[in-house]
């Protein structure tokens, strides 16, 4: 399942972030790639402990918490702090599949431990990938995110402030940026529901229920379907 979030960040916030990104300190993206991915990766990234990355990452995470479509589609259990990349002058990232397991940064873990008495896992399974676009498509050539999914190849190049959400299992690449600069954020989410097809069924049912409510359907039917939704989620969720 591949979905786009057309209204994740307001234009004003995107503009501020882009100004910050333009003057940030960038490092070679290969240092954070796995052994195999490093051979196909040529871009630059912000260091994960860069205060600028943390500040803008927090903005994105807050926006996701408020976003009903992301919540309904991703059913997030944990979100890894967003990272930021920059492509220009022919930089690209060839076809690859992202790592399956990530370690949560210590500060994210301790922050969650403060908010909850439950023991906090320090490892995160990357069920879902998200890319947030910070450059407008007219400002650069190339730089398409190409994702192989069950229905073939999807080519994604969204306006600034929009995001694409797709399964972490997908083969994907970023084509060379041949003019201008492409800034983006990317991050992984561990979902309550590991399987993409199960998440997709839950999303479709949720959309149908919301539509019935909007159209003033019989509350008893809505309640019955909502109960089925929750019983499916109970069966499939792995919090
Ligand atoms: Ni990737």
3D architecture notes:
The structure is a single chain. The chain is globular, with a radius of gyration of 19 Å. The strands form 3 sheets. Strands 1, 2, 4, 5, 6, 10, 11, 14 and 16 form a 9-stranded antiparallel sheet that branches. A 5-stranded antiparallel sheet has the order 3-7-15-12-13, with no helix packed on it. It is an alpha+beta fold and about 240 residues long. It is about 35% helix and about 30% strand. The chain has helices at about 10-20, 50-65, 70-75, 105-115, 195-215, 220-235; strands at about 5, 25-30, 40, 45, 75-80, 85-90, 90-95, 100-105, 125, 130-135, 140, 145-150, 150-155, 165, 170-175, 175-190. The model has no long low-confidence stretch (mean pLDDT about 90). The two termini are about 20 Å apart. The chain folds into 2 domains: about 5-190, Jelly Rolls (Sandwich); about 195-235, DNA Excision Repair, Uvrb, Chain A (Irregular), CATH 4.10.860. The protein binds nickel (II) ion. Nickel (II) ion binds near residues 96, 98 and 172.
């Amino acid at each position: 399942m591949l979905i786009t979030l057309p209204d994740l960040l307001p234009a004003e916030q995107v503009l501020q972030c882009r100004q910050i990104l333009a003057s940030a300190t960038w490092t070679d993206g290969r240092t954070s790639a796995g052994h195999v991915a490093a051979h196909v990766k040529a871009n630059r990234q912000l260091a994960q402990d860069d205060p600028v990355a943390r500040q803008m990452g927090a903005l994105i995470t807050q926006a996701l918490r408020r976003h009903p479509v992301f919540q309904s589609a991703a059913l997030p259990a944990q979100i890894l702090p967003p990272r930021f990349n920059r492509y220009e002058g022919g930089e690209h990232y060839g076809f690859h599949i992202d790592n399956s397991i990530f370690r949560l940064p210590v500060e994210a873990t301790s922050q969650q431990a403060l908010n909850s008495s439950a023991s906090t896992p320090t490892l995160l399974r990357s069920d879902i990938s998200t890319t947030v676009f910070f450059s407008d498509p007219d400002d650069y050539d190339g730089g398409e995110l190409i994702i192989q999914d069950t229905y073939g190849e999807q080519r994604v190049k969204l306006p600034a402030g929009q995001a694409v959400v797709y399964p972490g299992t997908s083969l994907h690449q970023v084509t060379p940026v041949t003019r201008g600069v492409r800034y983006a954020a990317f991050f992984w989410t561990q979902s309550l529901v590991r399987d993409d097809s199960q998440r997709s069924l839950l999303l479709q049912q949720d959309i149908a229920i919301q539509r019935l409510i909007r159209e003033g359907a019989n509350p008893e039917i809505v309640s019955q379907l909502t109960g089925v939704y929750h019983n499916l989620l109970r069966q499939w969720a792995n919090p």
